[in-house]
Amino acid sequence: MKEFNIKGTGVALVTPFDKHESIDFTKLGKLIDYCIDGGVDYLVCLGTTSEYPTLSDKEMLAVREFTIEHVDNRVPIVLGMGGNNTKLLTNKIAKTDTDGFSAILSVAPYYNKPSQKGLYYHFHHVAGSSSLPVIIYNVPGRTGCNLNAETTLQLAEECKNIIGIKEASGNMNQCMEILRCKPKGFELVSGEDALTLPLISCGAKGVISVTANAFPKQVSDMVNLALKDNCKKASAIHSKLLPFTNAIFEEGNPCGIKATLEIMGITESVVRQPLYKISKTLYNKLQSIIKEIK
User: Fold this and answer.
1) What is the pLDDT at residue 191?
2) Residue 42 phi, psi dihedral angles, 5° rounding
3) Would you say 72 and 99 are in contact if contact means Cβ atoms under 8 Å apart?
4) What's the pLDDT score for residue 69?
5) Pseudo-torsion of CA 245, 111, 268, 278, nearest 10°?
6) Which end of the chain has fewer CB within 10 Å, C or N?
7) How far is CA 252 from each of CA 169, 194, 277, rounded to the nearest angstrom?
């Protein structure tokens, strides 16, 4: 099995659309180059920030192939593959050509609200179907269920190709329990930009970031400084980014970050329904915040 180092800054890439809501591959290439030039450690293709539920199978294949070709081995790529139908998902993982990818990021099942035993077996089957290392993703604010520390640690012990968790529960006690008891070879990364610095101070190894779509250098610098125990300089960057990080989620993700990328001249702000563009009030607020960061 391939090895993958989860340490550092990963970017949960958006999927740029043009005004007709078609995928804009030119803008996707521009975004990829911008993030790599900003010093990020890896990219996440077709994660939840990509709006993958609104993409057809043909579109997802096109995004995968384009991303692999455009990145051209400059950084590792993690492939997002999640769902709330375990059998369908595991069959899809087993049949997907993952050549060119270094790991899979799989979000907890959404809407079904399975028990801890259900979550355990879901991820156990995901791990068993994947030829790549697996990063599990806990984001109860979106899925409706929380993968608790005990279940996470059981998966970490029993499924050797589950190499880490993207933790976005916002529950610091839960995260610290995972960090305290995790086995060697299993790592925790932040799934919430606002909590990246405090989580690294507790032992997390980095972040899979939405903010880094817009500010890859700043996020990467903050993470690298924090990992080197230079908390004073890392905290200064964190404080500067925090108003922006909070603002981009005010009216939904990736609506805020896409509006930001439009303001910065990188992509359009177009999202597919049921998402909707942000208000003019928030757009103006983001413009002001971006000027302060730059």
Assistant:
1) 98
2) -160, 165
3) no
4) 98
5) -60
6) C
7) 17, 15, 9
Look at residue 3 in the predicted model and tell me its pLDDT: 84
Strand pairing of 77-80 and 162-167?
unpaired
pLDDT of res. 294: 74
- What is the per-residue pLDDT for 211? 98
137 is catalytic: yes
Q: Are 268 and 27 in contact (CB under 8 A)?
A: yes
CATH topology of domain 8-229: TIM Barrel (3.20.20)
- The identity of residue 148, as a single letter, is N
Pick the catalytic residue from 34, 52, 120, 137.
137
- Select from 100, 79, 153 the least CA-distant residue to 123: 153
Collect all residues with Cβ–Cβ distance below 8 Å to 180 and sequence separation of at least 6.
Answer: none
Three-state DSSP at 80 gives strand
Alpha helix positions (H), 42-100: 57-71, 86-95
pLDDT for res 24: 98
Domains of the chain: which residue ranges? 8-229
β-strands 103-107, 187-190 pairing: unpaired
Cα separation values, 160 from 225, 227, 229, 248, Å: 30, 25, 29, 36
Tokens for 178, please give them.
């995972």
Nearest to 187 by CA among 195, 197, 175, 198: 175
> CA angle, corner 137, sides to 203 and 250, nearest 5?
95
Catalytic (active site) residue 228: no
Q: Which of 166, 182, 205, 258 is catalytic?
A: 166
The ranges of the chain with pLDDT < 50 are none
Q: Could you check whether the bond before residue 274 is cis, i.e. omega within 30 degrees of 0? A: yes
* Structure confidence by residue, pLDDT tens digits, 47-73: 999 999 999 999 999 999 999 999 999
Q: How many CB atoms lie within 10 A of CB 285?
A: 17
